[in-house]
Write a structure and sequence with these properties.
It holds the Pfam family Caleosin. By secondary structure, this protein is mostly helical. The chain is about 55% helix and about 5% strand. It has two domains: about 100 residues, no CATH class; about 100 residues, Recoverin, domain 1.
Length: about 220
């Protein structure tokens, strides 16, 4: 019976979702490197990802990312898959050299090292906000309304920014803009300029979480 139980447990573990495996690895890993974050001088990109730093220690764990997605209103399956893929991609790039293996946590002070190509340029290479590039989004693509984007305009924006020499970077903007549109577009299908601006510094995320929390409390 014991042998059979062990085999069943091993087989079950192989069927666990990737994010569950990541969470277990993180839980049983030995410690982590310390993080330093200059909160007063955070870049917009650091503010953007800090929404997922639920305990505000400068380090984002897979469980925190999962919790953040759920807080935004994403379903559990999507949140698990997203947390798994985000940490697999950004953990090794943002972890300091003294971080223990596996390097799956995301260190906010190094988040600029995880930036991908084929984006709008509204963040510079250090993660700072570039107002001119942000305005170009609407100058070039906002045809129906000057202060908002339709779903077709979002698609046009994504395609126009694709780097033909870097096809591996094409997937990131599709996921990011797709989720932004799903979460923040209005009932008429417009993703407003102020909402997009709020996504760049996470203030829109805070509003979405508060709105979701408020709606649940009223049920």
């Amino acid at each position: 019976m014991m042998v059979g139980w062990r085999r069943s447990s091993a087989a079950a573990s192989l069927q666990m979702p990737p994010v569950t495996i990541l969470l277990l690895v993180w839980v049983f890993s030995w410690g982590h490197a310390t993080a330093y974050l200059d909160i007063a001088n955070m870049t917009e990109l650091q503010k953007h990802v800090s929404f997922f730093d639920r305990n505000k220690d400068g380090i984002i764990t897979p469980s925190e990312t999962f919790e953040g997605y759920v807080a935004l209103g994403c379903d559990v399956a999507f949140s698990r898959e997203s947390a798994s893929s985000v940490h697999a991609a950004l953990g090794p790039k943002t972890s300091p050299v003294d971080a223990p293996l596996p390097q799956i946590n995301i260190y906010i002070d190094q988040i600029h090292k995880g930036m991908h190509g084929s984006d709008t340029g509204a963040y510079d290479a250090h993660g700072r906000f570039v107002p001119q590039k942000f305005e170009e989004i609407f100058i070039k693509h906002a045809k129906v309304r000057s202060d908002a984007l339709t779903s077709l305009e979002v698609e046009e924006l994504i395609l126009s920014n694709r780097d033909p020499l870097d096809p591996q970077s094409w997937g990131g903007p599709v996921k990011e803009w797709g989720l932004s549109y799903k979460l923040s577009s209005d009932k008429d299908g417009f993703l407003h300029k102020d909402s997009i601006r709020g996504i760049y510094d996470a203030s829109e995320f805070v509003k979405l979480e508060e709105k979701r929390r408020s709606s649940r409390s009223e049920m």
